[in-house]
């Protein structure tokens, strides 16, 4: 695959994974990309990634970071003061207490506990199907997101959800349908916490139940455009062996929510390389060994536009445990946002890294906290 510049013609795509409170890392990544002058043409998300996607696509470029900040300040709490001194143990206690507060009392502008609880409602009632009410989220989306702008298709917008009745994965895409707050909420309706969302007579749950990263959809929908994909992951597929039950819960969640991400990325890029090999083979074949019709068919099958995937992976801190996706403290939000900014800057500071000179089919994975074990090095060690 030839080295090529993608700066002028490729569509910039932002792919945002689900991960609850960790989503402020994605906001920090977007903040950094905007500072680098990267104009996003298409944003696709799952769960909290869908909410961030709506805040981006539903606002003019000059107001997107402002709206992201407004949302994340709204949904995070500064009630508990951060520990006045450093160390892993005090911060672990602070984070666990913050997560317990969110679970008990809800999150401002996002969700509130059901009072009375779901067991007090008759079977089949909407209130019987979740622990929390997400009406505050709808009000927040209506306040911060201009859905007319999303539906004007200035930026392509795609969010994934699961049809409860069929179990099938569904994407709501402004290229095909009118988008409203309900489509964003459906993508983030994670049971049993959040209620299913009804759209056109069907009910939907969080897309992360099937696939937590919308990269495969983006590549399937690519068409003839060259793509530069910024894939922002909140759970790392790599990590050390757990030492206790807290680390066990943390590692299990990482594996569960990142399980298909690397598989889909590797599988799609392997197909691209196979098509490139087929193109080279067709060009090398003597004309008398292949008919014109067969050559046309094989050339059509082998055609592929250029794609580069830059995968930025959040690496949790030692004090973050299995509750980190619903730990909505103000301090953690600021830490996650800063990590997103820093990781883009660190990625670009590495030798040979540039957003203007990339190789078709390249998958550049940047996981800043991963230290590979001793042994043969990977093609792109994090």
Short description:
It contains twelve helices and 13 strands. The chain has helices spanning 24-35, 48-57, 64-75, 88-105, 135-144, 147-151, 181-187, 215-220, 245-258, 261-284, 292-302, 330-349, and strands spanning 3-4, 11-16, 42-46, 112-113, 132-133, 156-163, 169-173, 197-199, 202-206, 227-233, 307-313, 358-359, 363-366.
Question: Key features?
Answer:
382 residues; alpha/beta; nine-stranded mixed sheet; two-stranded antiparallel sheet; 12 helices; 15% strand; disordered N terminus
- How many helix segments? 12
**Helix content class:** 25-40%
Radius of gyration: 22 Å
Annotation, overall tally of beta strands:
13
């Amino acid at each position: 695959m030839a080295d090529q510049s993608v700066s002028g013609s490729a569509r910039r795509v932002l792919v945002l994974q689900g991960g609850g409170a960790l989503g402020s890392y994605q906001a920090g990544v977007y903040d950094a990309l905007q500072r680098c002058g990267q104009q996003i043409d298409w944003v696709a998300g799952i769960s909290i990634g869908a909410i961030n996607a709506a805040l981006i696509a539903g606002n003019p470029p000059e107001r997107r970071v402002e709206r992201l900040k407004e949302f994340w300040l709204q949904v995070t709490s500064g009630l508990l003061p951060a520990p006045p001194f450093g160390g892993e143990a005090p911060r672990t206690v602070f984070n666990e207490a913050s997560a317990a507060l969110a679970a008990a009392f809800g999150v401002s502008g996002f969700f509130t506990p059901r009072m009375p609880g779901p067991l007090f409602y008759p079977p089949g009632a909407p209130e019987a199907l979740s622990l929390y009410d997400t009406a505050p989220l709808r009000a927040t989306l209506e306040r911060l997101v201009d859905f007319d702008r999303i539906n004007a298709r200035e930026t392509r917008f795609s969010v994934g959800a699961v049809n409860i009745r069929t179990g099938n994965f569904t994407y709501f895409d402004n290229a095909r349908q009118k988008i409203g707050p309900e489509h964003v909420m459906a993508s983030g309706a994670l049971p049993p916490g959040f209620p299913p969302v009804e759209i056109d007579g069907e009910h939907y749950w969080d897309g992360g139940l099937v696939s937590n990263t919308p990269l495969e959809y983006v590549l399937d929908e690519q068409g003839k455009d060259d793509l530069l994909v910024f894939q922002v992951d909140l759970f790392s597929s790599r990590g050390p062996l757990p030492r206790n039950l807290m680390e066990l819960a943390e590692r299990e969640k990482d594996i569960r929510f990142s399980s298909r991400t690397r598989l889909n990325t590797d599988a799609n890029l392997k197909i691209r390389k196979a098509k490139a090999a087929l193109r080279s083979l067709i060009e090398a074949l003597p004309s008398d060994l292949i008919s014109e019709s067969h050559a046309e068919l094989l050339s059509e099958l082998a055609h592929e536009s250029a794609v580069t995937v830059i995968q930025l992976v959040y690496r949790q801190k030692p004090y973050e445990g299995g509750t980190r996706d619903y730990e909505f403290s103000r301090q953690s939000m600021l830490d996650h946002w800063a990590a997103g900014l820093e990781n883009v800057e660190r990625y670009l500071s590495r030798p040979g890294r540039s957003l203007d000179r990339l190789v078709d089919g390249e998958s550049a994975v940047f996981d800043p906290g991963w230290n590979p074990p001793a042994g043969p090095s990977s093609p792109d060690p994090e």
